[in-house]
Amino acid sequence: MTHSYDESENQGRGPEEPVVVRDRRRVDPQTGQVRPPGPAHAAPEPDEAPVEHAGPSLGESIMDDSVTVVSDVEKELSERTADLQRLQAEYANYRKRVERDREAVVIGAKATVVNDLLPLLDDLERADQHGDLTGAFKAVGDKLISGLQRAGLESFGTEGEAFDPSVHEAVQHNTSPDVAGPTVTVVMRRGYRFGDRVLRAALVGVTDHEPGAAPVDPPVGGELPLGGGLDEQQQ
């Protein structure tokens, strides 16, 4: 009994895959020549994907993009750090300038108040010289002077100190061989300074050295000075 072919048996099957025949014979049957050996000359299989080259192509950068991003971030961070340091320095200078200006304003205000009290100090000094500064009046005057001195008031202008035109105002001038240079010998009005600021110059009389004159030795024990007799002294 022969088996009849039924087309219905192959209706549920898909299309058959084509048969690929690879001729691996070393001798070509058509030309009779030996084919070159090795797989290097063999054609690539149709189902094999081409192998990608691992290295960079010509003209392609070998640096990683992440390295460039990190470098840009570091550069920007350095710039922002420099800006912050510059702002901190400017703010520190601004604070110093404000403090210096504020201190100058405070000192100026104090100096203005003290300057208005200088005539009162002159009256207290004259009263003390005449013996009128006594009792409760003297206690109040001493407290006033002590408070002004604690605030920064300083007086200058005493007899015997060297003449300084920046703080002394000379209204009288004499010469004498007893001094080696310009010297304050008379104080007519005391001077005052507040801190580094001179509120008022001192009115003084100045005595300068007299050139060519030697001081005369006073008589000792009733003896006459050397260099002359009684007639010369009378003349």
From TrEMBL:
Lineage top rank: taxon: Bacteria
Extent of Gly residues compositional bias: 224-235
InterPro entries to which the protein is assigned, alphabetical: GrpE (IPR000740), GrpE_CC (IPR013805), GrpE_head (IPR009012)
Compositional bias ranges of the Basic and acidic residues kind: 14-28
Transmembrane segments: none
Coiled coil: 70-104
Keywords assigned by UniProt, alphabetized: Chaperone, Coiled coil, Cytoplasm, Stress response
Biased composition (Low complexity): 212-223
Localization, UniProt: Cytoplasm
Annotated segments matching region Disordered: 1-63, 208-235
Role this protein plays: Participates actively in the response to hyperosmotic and heat shock by preventing the aggregation of stress-denatured proteins, in association with DnaK and GrpE. It is the nucleotide exchange factor for DnaK and may function as a thermosensor. Unfolded proteins bind initially to DnaJ; upon interaction with the DnaJ-bound protein, DnaK hydrolyzes its bound ATP, resulting in the formation of a stable complex. GrpE releases ADP from DnaK; ATP binding to DnaK triggers the release of the substrate protein, thus completing the reaction cycle.
Assembly with partners or alone: Homodimer.
Family statement: Belongs to the GrpE family.
Name recorded for this polypeptide: Protein GrpE
Species of the source: Amycolatopsis heterodermiae
Source species taxonomy: Bacteria, Bacillati, Actinomycetota, Actinomycetes, Pseudonocardiales
This protein's encoding gene: grpE
